[in-house]
Amino acid sequence: MPSIKTSKEELLQKVIPVLRVRGVHNSSLSALAKACNIQKSHFYYYFNNKETLIKEVLDTVYSYFNYNFSRIIKNDELSLDQKLLKLKQLLYKIFSISDGGCIMANTALETIHLDPIYKTEIRLFFQDFISGIQVLLEHHHSSKDSLVLAEQIVQDIEGGILLVQVYDDQKYLKNAISRMEKLILNK
Fold it and tell me: Can you spell out the DSSP letters for the chain?
């Protein structure tokens, strides 16, 4: 295997799609190194162990999502319709272009019941996802109703992502996003 100098960020970007498809338990450091075209020992330059690598991956995914999601939600120059359009584009970009679905949900399903080591990172992602949707819902709904609806929307989107993987059909995500839009706009 060639010896390639790779930055920590480049490694994380190469590892994310592999973990999204293969999962945590089916991705040894050897398999990840092979997928990244590096020596396994190169991981140890940046990460103490596989768990540290996975936490960094989840932090990277969370940071990317939260940065882009927050920019939409908190942008006072955008109308609610414009925010929804940008949010839909972001959700399609993240969840329909890549194979494997939502890495946060996948990791949660795979690890939380056996070893909750990544629970904090996963919970933070979903809390912020719900909170952001709640902000949009508060345009037409009470704070209490907004929270319940935001949780429902995130559950619906994650279920849609799962069904896309099961049936290889994007309609499930599109339908969940359409339902989100109707609830936010109170139609």
Answer: -------HHHHHHHHHHHHHHH-STT--HHHHHHHHTS-HHHHHHH-SSHHHHHHHHHHHHHHHHHHHHHHHHT-TTS-HHHHHHHHHHHHHHHHHSSTTS-HHHHHHHHHTTT-GGGHHHHHHHHHHHHHHHHHHHTTTS-HHHHHHHHHHHHHHHHHHHHHHHHHT-THHHHHHHHHHHHHHHT-
